[in-house]
Amino acid sequence: MIVEEDLSNAEVTPREDRLQRSRVAQELAHWGTFSYQLALLFVVLCLLAGSAFAAFTPEPLGQRLMSLVFVAFLPAFAAYSIGSLTFWTLRGVSAIYDPACMELASVCERITARLLVRARRCCDKAWRVFIFGATFPVRLTAQILIWLIPSAA
Prior knowledge:
The chain has one domain. It is 82% helix and 4% strand. It has helices at 4-8, 23-56, 61-96, 99-148, and strands at 12-14, 20-22. Helix 2 runs antiparallel to helix 3. The longest helix has 50 residues, at 99-148. The model has no long low-confidence stretch (mean pLDDT 82).
Protein backbone atom coordinates (compact mmCIF):
# COMPACT_ATOMS: atom_id res chain seq x y z
CA MET A 1 0.00 0.00 0.00
CA ILE A 2 1.28 3.47 -0.85
CA VAL A 3 1.31 6.04 1.92
CA GLU A 4 0.95 9.79 1.33
CA GLU A 5 4.46 10.46 2.64
CA ASP A 6 5.81 8.17 -0.08
CA LEU A 7 3.99 10.18 -2.70
CA SER A 8 5.26 13.54 -1.50
CA ASN A 9 8.88 12.34 -1.32
CA ALA A 10 8.78 10.44 -4.59
CA GLU A 11 11.99 10.41 -6.54
CA VAL A 12 12.05 11.18 -10.22
CA THR A 13 13.92 8.71 -12.41
CA PRO A 14 14.95 9.49 -15.99
CA ARG A 15 13.37 7.67 -18.90
CA GLU A 16 14.88 6.97 -22.28
CA ASP A 17 12.42 9.12 -24.22
CA ARG A 18 13.35 12.29 -22.32
CA LEU A 19 10.24 12.23 -20.09
CA GLN A 20 10.62 11.53 -16.41
CA ARG A 21 8.35 9.40 -14.27
CA SER A 22 8.23 9.32 -10.51
CA ARG A 23 9.02 6.14 -8.64
CA VAL A 24 5.43 5.93 -7.42
CA ALA A 25 4.09 6.18 -10.98
CA GLN A 26 6.41 3.38 -12.05
CA GLU A 27 5.35 1.17 -9.12
CA LEU A 28 1.67 1.71 -9.82
CA ALA A 29 2.17 0.84 -13.49
CA HIS A 30 4.02 -2.36 -12.53
CA TRP A 31 1.26 -3.38 -10.10
CA GLY A 32 -1.31 -2.74 -12.79
CA THR A 33 0.49 -5.06 -15.20
CA PHE A 34 0.85 -7.67 -12.45
CA SER A 35 -2.89 -7.55 -11.66
CA TYR A 36 -3.75 -8.04 -15.33
CA GLN A 37 -1.41 -11.02 -15.66
CA LEU A 38 -2.80 -12.52 -12.46
CA ALA A 39 -6.34 -12.10 -13.82
CA LEU A 40 -5.37 -13.90 -17.02
CA LEU A 41 -3.93 -16.75 -14.92
CA PHE A 42 -7.21 -17.01 -13.01
CA VAL A 43 -9.13 -17.03 -16.30
CA VAL A 44 -7.07 -19.97 -17.58
CA LEU A 45 -7.45 -21.84 -14.28
CA CYS A 46 -11.22 -21.27 -14.21
CA LEU A 47 -11.61 -22.48 -17.79
CA LEU A 48 -9.45 -25.56 -17.21
CA ALA A 49 -11.14 -26.50 -13.94
CA GLY A 50 -14.63 -25.89 -15.34
CA SER A 51 -13.89 -27.86 -18.50
CA ALA A 52 -12.50 -30.78 -16.49
CA PHE A 53 -15.52 -30.71 -14.20
CA ALA A 54 -17.94 -30.66 -17.16
CA ALA A 55 -16.01 -33.41 -18.97
CA PHE A 56 -15.91 -35.85 -16.06
CA THR A 57 -19.40 -35.26 -14.67
CA PRO A 58 -21.79 -38.16 -15.43
CA GLU A 59 -24.72 -35.92 -16.38
CA PRO A 60 -26.61 -35.35 -19.63
CA LEU A 61 -25.14 -32.96 -22.19
CA GLY A 62 -27.48 -30.06 -21.33
CA GLN A 63 -26.55 -30.12 -17.66
CA ARG A 64 -22.85 -30.39 -18.56
CA LEU A 65 -23.12 -27.28 -20.71
CA MET A 66 -24.91 -25.39 -17.93
CA SER A 67 -22.28 -26.45 -15.42
CA LEU A 68 -19.60 -25.35 -17.91
CA VAL A 69 -21.22 -21.93 -18.06
CA PHE A 70 -21.63 -21.56 -14.30
CA VAL A 71 -18.38 -23.21 -13.22
CA ALA A 72 -16.04 -22.03 -16.00
CA PHE A 73 -17.28 -19.10 -18.08
CA LEU A 74 -18.89 -16.88 -15.43
CA PRO A 75 -15.95 -17.07 -12.97
CA ALA A 76 -13.52 -16.55 -15.87
CA PHE A 77 -15.46 -13.49 -17.02
CA ALA A 78 -15.55 -12.14 -13.47
CA ALA A 79 -11.80 -12.66 -13.02
CA TYR A 80 -11.06 -10.98 -16.35
CA SER A 81 -13.35 -8.04 -15.54
CA ILE A 82 -11.84 -7.47 -12.11
CA GLY A 83 -8.29 -7.79 -13.46
CA SER A 84 -8.95 -5.38 -16.34
CA LEU A 85 -10.63 -2.87 -14.06
CA THR A 86 -7.73 -3.03 -11.63
CA PHE A 87 -5.20 -2.74 -14.47
CA TRP A 88 -6.81 0.35 -15.99
CA THR A 89 -7.36 1.96 -12.59
CA LEU A 90 -3.73 1.53 -11.57
CA ARG A 91 -2.46 2.67 -14.97
CA GLY A 92 -4.64 5.77 -14.75
CA VAL A 93 -3.45 6.55 -11.25
CA SER A 94 0.16 6.07 -12.35
CA ALA A 95 -0.45 8.57 -15.15
CA ILE A 96 -1.84 11.04 -12.62
CA TYR A 97 1.38 10.80 -10.58
CA ASP A 98 3.50 11.25 -13.69
CA PRO A 99 5.02 14.77 -13.61
CA ALA A 100 4.81 15.13 -17.40
CA CYS A 101 1.15 14.19 -17.23
CA MET A 102 0.55 16.73 -14.46
CA GLU A 103 2.16 19.44 -16.58
CA LEU A 104 0.11 18.39 -19.60
CA ALA A 105 -3.07 18.39 -17.52
CA SER A 106 -2.28 21.91 -16.32
CA VAL A 107 -1.75 23.11 -19.90
CA CYS A 108 -4.96 21.37 -21.02
CA GLU A 109 -6.84 22.97 -18.14
CA ARG A 110 -5.67 26.46 -19.14
CA ILE A 111 -6.52 25.84 -22.80
CA THR A 112 -9.96 24.51 -21.86
CA ALA A 113 -10.64 27.53 -19.65
CA ARG A 114 -9.71 29.89 -22.50
CA LEU A 115 -11.89 27.96 -24.95
CA LEU A 116 -14.83 28.07 -22.54
CA VAL A 117 -14.44 31.85 -22.10
CA ARG A 118 -14.36 32.35 -25.87
CA ALA A 119 -17.31 30.01 -26.35
CA ARG A 120 -19.27 32.00 -23.78
CA ARG A 121 -18.51 35.24 -25.61
CA CYS A 122 -19.54 33.72 -28.94
CA CYS A 123 -22.78 32.41 -27.40
CA ASP A 124 -23.55 35.86 -25.99
CA LYS A 125 -22.99 37.46 -29.41
CA ALA A 126 -25.04 34.77 -31.14
CA TRP A 127 -27.86 35.30 -28.64
CA ARG A 128 -27.85 39.04 -29.34
CA VAL A 129 -27.96 38.42 -33.09
CA PHE A 130 -30.80 35.93 -32.61
CA ILE A 131 -32.82 38.36 -30.48
CA PHE A 132 -32.19 41.16 -32.98
CA GLY A 133 -33.23 38.91 -35.88
CA ALA A 134 -36.30 37.62 -34.08
CA THR A 135 -37.53 41.07 -33.04
CA PHE A 136 -36.60 42.85 -36.28
CA PRO A 137 -39.95 42.29 -38.04
CA VAL A 138 -41.87 43.56 -35.01
CA ARG A 139 -39.69 46.66 -34.69
CA LEU A 140 -39.85 47.33 -38.44
CA THR A 141 -43.62 47.02 -38.43
CA ALA A 142 -43.86 49.37 -35.46
CA GLN A 143 -41.65 51.97 -37.15
CA ILE A 144 -43.66 51.77 -40.39
CA LEU A 145 -46.91 52.21 -38.48
CA ILE A 146 -45.48 55.17 -36.60
CA TRP A 147 -44.38 56.71 -39.92
CA LEU A 148 -47.71 56.04 -41.69
CA ILE A 149 -50.05 57.05 -38.90
CA PRO A 150 -49.46 60.65 -37.94
CA SER A 151 -49.63 61.42 -34.28
CA ALA A 152 -52.76 63.09 -32.93
CA ALA A 153 -50.82 65.88 -31.31
